[in-house]
Specification:
405 residues; alpha/beta; Aspartate Aminotransferase, domain 1; Aspartate Aminotransferase, domain 2; 2 domains; 5-stranded mixed beta sheet; 3-stranded antiparallel beta sheet; 12 strands; globular
Amino acid sequence: MDAQAHLLPSRREFAGDDLIFTLNGRAQKRAAEGVPVINATIGALYDDTGTLVVLDTVMAQWQQLTSAEIAPYAPIGGDPTYLLNLVQRHWPALTSVGVGVATPGGSGALALTLKNLLERGQTVLTVAPYWGPYSTLAVEAGMSLATVPYPDVHTGLDLGAWEAACRDLLDAQGRLVLWLNDPCHNPTGRSFAAADRRALMDMLRDVSSQGPVTLILDLAYLDYARDPREVRAALDEYAAFAAEGAVLVGACLSLSKAYTLYGARAGALVFPWSTDRALQAALVTSCRGTWSNCARGPMSVLNRISKDPALQARLEAEHAQWRTLLAERAQALDAALKGEGLAGCAYDGGFFVTLDGGADPFATCERLQQRDVFVVPMPEGLRVGICAMKASDAPRFAAAYRASR
């Protein structure tokens, strides 16, 4: 019997190769044949020589770890010092983790929100376009994913559509969980304007009268924002909103991009403004029932850097170098697109921008491949990984994009 017959129907669509890996494989094959390709499918940071960026400050501490910092089991919920240090990377004034557990990266944190805040058959709400694995996480948990539109670059947040979606889910299932990747949204490369963020918080406060509302912040790319001051302002606004208590606010934190430790799978799910012991116990139980506990090594690296101001300053200098490079790449692409008579690309931070894919983004993607330019198609457009695309590639990319529309 075909092995696929043993899969649940909801899992079969995920049994094949992931689209991004397929496209990346095609790009690598063409490159191996000696063809100059632009591979904008990659989701990790590369320098202009095509080498994976690894932060020197982080790796120097990794190489100095002792056996005691690597080998022993970490607590099931994570090392408390690590959790506090990770929370304080985002909210330095906080003196407590509140509720929180270590997770294997941000994706592990997202998965825990589904296990503990929704029931099978229910729906989590997020923004479209979104990071593709959001859908995988939802389906794997026996849930659905509903979307609301990302704020338009010209007109801003469609508050009516957002409120209607929130109220519909509250009516249907008695609770609402919203995954929000802000600031530095993947894949648009944009952040909410301050006015849109405040309007969203006002709306969530209002709809919470219908039932429990949880806002989960997916904070993966903050260290690569064009303007770190805007990130600080956004995080402070979310903290003030969370402290009100009308809406439960949590955050999925990760070292994957922040420390270029993609393979270490270190992160956390935290609710720093909650003291709910039942929630803490439920999260620890879920940890035990899935990955049991997380790797101690990356926790130790964060702890080392967090207690040494000199190391923190070196790490910040590295982040500044790479966020400057990303901003330069986005600026070069924006200028090249406009030079072809096209709309440019808005960018506030992160590894990606999203471009208009035309009536059929998947067909546009295929036409780009014929010109050896590789991007990721989505229903809402084309995801372009500026994290792996040189600024000097921008004119060729823009010309190919114009010819493929």
